[in-house]
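Below is a filled-in request sheet from our internal design queue. Each sheet records the structural input a requester submitted and the sequence that came back. We keep these sheets so that new team members can see what a complete request looks like end to end.

REQUESTER: design group, bay 2
PRIORITY: normal
MODE: inverse folding
CHAIN LENGTH: 503
BACKBONE (tokenized):
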């Protein structure tokens, strides 16, 4: 598997205390979603929390970001210097924009009324058109990401609208996938696109859990909230905007959530669609197995995928073995249903960094052997069912099959927990062109021969949908079916009707 997720986002709002520390740990829990860069922005009062004559507080946004993993970017001194009770965070792997510090997030934009910080998970398909329009209006861009397009659009609309009306106008213009956390003055804002393509959820933080203050947490996955000792409340609904302001102290939410004393949260269902379009690969690969996405525990979904894969199979074998880590839960489910022993034939070296920068085939071979080693006594003379989540280019799969056979495996039968990937993703996943996809215009038997496998079988589309437990109409299956939920030039689109909700 060589798909790469765009990023993970988080937001923290506390009535008092420092948001940077819980943001650091939340990003740590989301590190699997992006390993290229990390960043935290916090909003703090410049006047000691004293209201001015207009009834507000003068605030500033402090930003720290860098290239690398979360622990490499932030030291304890950095976290102490990020002094603010509201903040957002981001971990990135680029889907648009080069890998450089200017594109690291959160992005900070100045406009006449103040500053906006924004963190984005997803991808806009009309970003270049919108960027050219904004540049013609005289707006200057400092990065080449679609996140800055969103930020500049929002800054423009905030000059003539209140925040909710401004976000309505932005959401009306942008096409694609986006889950957002935004810092605007003393307010944390969470936004999920009308199709709910990328995940986003909200939870509460309880005072006394790990030293965290009572408040709210927003995150790409529920596991980040659990890491903070918090309580997962629910997913942010597709097309919903949440605004959290620690200063308003309205009583209704204190009554509903006494653990968030001093907090208020406003909920706006800005847009509503006839159907949603949740990314199916969140369940197959991207999300952590202990996360709950749109009401489903990812681990349970992956177990069902493995079980269904076994139900659709009839091969005889000695052991079921996963490609770690992504194939583990599938392989457990397969072995359980098939009644075949589960045994690890491959061990992952978890201390190896990114090696995909090595371009030559020889280097790729070495990178696979650095990451994976064969437990030879477990595979010698064995007929192995090797389970993985998906196949993209096929290069890594072929290397692994050859590696197992070199170490004495008698047969290697590849079993894949998704249907063949036959098209690119335009909505937040870094995937190759069609010509680079091994399954494009190839029969399954031909793919198996290319990968040197004794046999190859993919999970059926029907089996995948049943295992996920979400109606096909509410899933984005574009990379598997070439049928996308938003209009993309040259591609087939499923019509998803949008409806503006008035208040």
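RETURNED SEQUENCE:
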């Amino acid at each position: 598997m060589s798909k790469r997720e765009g990023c993970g986002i988080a937001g923290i709002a506390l009535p008092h205390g420092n948001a940077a520390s819980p943001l650091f740990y939340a990003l740590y829990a989301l590190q699997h979603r992006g390993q290229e860069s990390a960043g935290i922005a916090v909003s703090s009062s410049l006047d000691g929390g004293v209201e001015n004559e207009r009834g507000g507080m003068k605030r500033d946004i402090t930003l720290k970001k860098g290239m690398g993993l979360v622990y490499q970017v932030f030291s304890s001194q950095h976290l102490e210097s990020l002094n603010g009770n509201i903040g957002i965070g981001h971990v990135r792997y680029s889907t648009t924009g080069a890998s450089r510090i200017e594109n690291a997030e959160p992005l900070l934009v100045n406009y006449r009324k103040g500053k906006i910080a924004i963190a984005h998970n997803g991808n806009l398909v009309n970003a270049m058109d919108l960027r050219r329009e904004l540049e013609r209006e005289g707006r200057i861009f400092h990065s080449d990401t679609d996140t800055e397009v969103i930020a500049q659009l929002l800054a423009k609309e905030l000059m003539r609208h209140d925040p909710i009306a401004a976000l309505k106008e932005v959401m009306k213009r942008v096409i694609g996938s986006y889950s957002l956390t935004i810092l605007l003055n003393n307010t944390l804002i969470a936004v999920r696109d009308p199709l709910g393509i990328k995940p986003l959820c909200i939870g509460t933080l309880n005072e006394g859990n790990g030293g965290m203050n009572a408040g709210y947490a927003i995150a790409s996955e529920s596991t980040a909230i659990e890491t903070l000792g918090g309580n997962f409340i629910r997913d942010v609904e597709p097309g919903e905007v949440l605004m959290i302001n620690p200063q308003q102290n309205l009583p209704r939410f204190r009554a509903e959530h006494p653990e968030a004393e001093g907090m208020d949260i406003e909920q706006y269902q800005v847009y509503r669609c006839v159907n949603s379009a949740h990314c199916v690969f969140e369940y197959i690969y991207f999300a952590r197995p202990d996360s709950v996405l749109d009401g489903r525990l990812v681990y349970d979904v992956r177990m069902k995928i493995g079980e269904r894969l076994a139900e659709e199979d009839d091969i005889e074998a000695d052991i079921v073995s996963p490609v770690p880590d992504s194939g583990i839960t599938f392989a457990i489910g397969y072995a359980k249903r098939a009644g075949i022993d589960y045994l690890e034939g491959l061990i992952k070296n978890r201390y190896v960094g990114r090696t995909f920068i090595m371009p030559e085939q020889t280097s790729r071979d070495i990178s696979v052997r650095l990451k994976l080693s064969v437990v030879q006594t477990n595979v010698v003379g064995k007929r192995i069912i090797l389970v993985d989540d998906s196949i993209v280019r096929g290069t890594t799969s072929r290397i692994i099959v050859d590696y197992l056979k070199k170490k004495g495996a008698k047969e290697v039968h590849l079993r894949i927990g998704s249907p063949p990937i036959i098209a690119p993703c335009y909505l937040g996943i870094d995937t190759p062109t069609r010509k680079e996809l091994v399954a494009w215009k190839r029969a399954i038997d031909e793919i198996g021969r290319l990968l040197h496998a004794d046999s190859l079988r993919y999970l059926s589309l029907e089996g995948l949908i049943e295992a996920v437990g979400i109606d096909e109409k509410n899933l984005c299956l574009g990379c598997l079916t070439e049928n996308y939920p938003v209009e993309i030039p040259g591609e087939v689109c499923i019509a998803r009707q949008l409806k503006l909700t008035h208040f």
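SHEET NOTES:
- The two ends are 45 Å apart (CA to CA).
- The chain has two domains: 4-270, 299-470.
FILED BY: M.R.
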